[in-house]
Amino acid sequence: MMRVEKMLPSILCLVVSIAAGSAWVGNAASLPAKQIERGFSATHDPSYSEFQPLLADPNGVFSLGFLRFNSTQLELAVLHLPSSVPVWCANPARPALWTGSTSFSFNGTLVLSDPETGIIWSTPTAGGDRLVLLDSSNLQIQKLGDPVDVLWRSFDFPSDTLVQNQTFTSKAALFSTNRRYSMRLGSNYFALYMEVGKDPAPMYWKHTAMEARAQIVPGEGSIYARVEPAGFLGMYQNEKAPVDVLPFDTFSRGISGLRRLTLEPDGNLRAYYWNGSTWVRDFTAITEPCGLPSACGPYELCSTGEPRCKCLDNSTDGCLPADSGDLCGSEGDDFWVLRRKGVDLVNRELLGFQKVGSLAECEDSCERNCSCWGAVFNNATGYCYGMDYPIRMVVEGDEGKVGYFKVRGNAGGGGREGGSAGKSTRAALLVIGVVIFAGAAGFGVYQVRNRMRMIGGVDGSMTEGLAPGPYKDLNSASFRSIELSNSFKK
Ligand SMILES: *[C@@H]1O[C@H](CO)[C@@H](O)[C@H](O)[C@H]1NC(C)=O
Ligand SMILES: *[C@@H]1O[C@H](CO)[C@@H](O)[C@H](O)[C@H]1NC(C)=O
Ligand SMILES: *[C@@H]1O[C@H](CO)[C@@H](O)[C@H](O)[C@H]1NC(C)=O
Ligand SMILES: *[C@@H]1O[C@H](CO)[C@@H](O)[C@H](O)[C@H]1NC(C)=O
Ligand SMILES: *[C@@H]1O[C@H](CO)[C@@H](O)[C@H](O)[C@H]1NC(C)=O
Ligand SMILES: *[C@@H]1O[C@H](CO)[C@@H](O)[C@H](O)[C@H]1NC(C)=O
Ligand SMILES: *[C@@H]1O[C@H](CO)[C@@H](O)[C@H](O)[C@H]1NC(C)=O
């Protein structure tokens, strides 16, 4: 059973490659253009199974076109053709459907539209003369002249990936394809964040510039980052010398294959190089089994033992449901409290903390603050760490650390402490109860599925020492192949 599950991705992958191959061969008559001039338009042709090319780079390695993703959706993407991995996506707010008649047009502005919904996505620039895809995978809207003026470039709007030589600035962010995680640059660091609708988003990993070869000079401009062909992620304030060098495994080994850095759907940041037939992984930001926000679910405790994830409330039939937002609404006091000794937070060092006199003081400060979801008190240091996001990333800690966790809703059972019913009326409570029950039932199913997926991956990840999460032993390339293959099943 498990073995079949493990083989399935590669089998599907093979099927997809064959299918994709024949799709391209089948449409060989309409080779994609090398440049697109003002006035061009094309409509999506659903007879392509996975990708409809529109524009090619000079070497035929990258192509801009309509990409099918998540089975039913259509995205304007730049694809690395040998691997079918998208290196850029337009990422409209409302994704178009693969079965729809989305059209692509260039009239100085690049526009994706649909007869029913109108404009789905467009570039903010006007007055472009041509659209070109460079051999670096950078898509550019250019205004002809001497010199050629670049009005818009896809390199300024990355999606989940940076390719080598692509400059990443503090104006840009990487988002995982599921939009749950992001990567941004700060004043002297870059970090990974959980996108839980909070501003600022909670951080779960941070890399600070070492400033070994050059110092960051305040007021001399923001820093930027770039994946270098020599095999490292460099942070710079200017071109003279990097302020940080984050080396990949193949640093300075003369690898000439294309490199990319991708923020993956499990929240990990990984680098790869293309060796001519596959993407070889040579950097993983988070290697501790409990270090990823996706390692365990909400209200779960991650441990290095087996099973990796347990419910914080010791329940064996599904943990407490996921939550979002904060507790600041009109039912702000509508929560109950779960306490647990011997817990810690993976990202403790990245959270705000205050020194308090006692556990009671720590709990009290969280209790009175509706944007606080929980707190961990360390009685050895007197530090109180507050979580301003729904409970996640809890790990085992020593007995001196005590966790205080809010759970939305009325006390779920007789023996639970804390919590007040709030000002809600009986009727409202009944409605909330029904909703919570339905949610919990749904979540139970999700949990069981999630558990099964996790169990399916445990052995692989232990032997290879890879990061955890539902996608843990799939590299990004194969993950994307699954996304593609899912659509193929249809
Ligand atoms: C280009 O097309 C878009 C969408 O149809 C339209 O809003 C825009 O005004 C057009 N621009 C020019 C210069 O024709
Ligand atoms: C990256 O930049 C270097 C130096 O500017 C250049 O030699 C190389 O061709 C570039 N690589 C790509 C893929 O653009
Ligand atoms: C994929 O499709 C499902 C169902 O249509 C949707 O719920 C989910 O949000 C989609 N995922 C992404 C990453 O768009
Ligand atoms: C690329 O890497 C894969 C997996 O490590 C290996 O099987 C393959 O032989 C390599 N290809 C080349 C051209 O080096
Ligand atoms: C759960 O079990 C642990 C260890 O067995 C215990 O220390 C803890 O108090 C229990 N928590 C709850 C909420 O029952
Ligand atoms: C932590 O709390 C326990 C129990 O209240 C106490 O026995 C212990 O001395 C405390 N540890 C420190 C370092 O204060
Ligand atoms: C409320 O709690 C959050 C998270 O712990 C913290 O960031 C914020 O500063 C707190 N607000 C106040 C007013 O204490």
UniProtKB/TrEMBL annotation:
Parts of the chain that traverse the membrane? 427-446
Q: InterPro entries, from UniProt?
A: Bulb-type_lectin_dom (IPR001480), Bulb-type_lectin_dom_sf (IPR036426), G-type_lectin_kinases/EP1-like (IPR051343), S_locus_glycoprot_dom (IPR000858), SLSG/EP1 (IPR035446)
Q: Which GO terms describe its biological process?
A: recognition of pollen; response to other organism
Q: Which SUPFAM superfamilies match?
A: alpha-D-mannose-specific plant lectins
**What the protein does?**
Involved in sporophytic self-incompatibility system (the inability of flowering plants to achieve self-fertilization).
Organism encoding this protein: Cocos nucifera (Coconut palm)
**Entries under PANTHER family matching the protein:** G-TYPE LECTIN S-RECEPTOR-LIKE SERINE/THREONINE-PROTEIN KINASE SD2-5
Please verify whether the record's keywords include Membrane: yes
Please list the residue ranges annotated as the Bulb-type lectin domain.
39-154
Protein name, entry field: PAN domain-containing protein
Which region is the signal sequence?
1-28
Which keywords does this chain's UniProt record carry? Answer: Disulfide bond, Membrane, Signal, Transmembrane, Transmembrane helix
Q: Name one Pfam family in it.
A: B_lectin
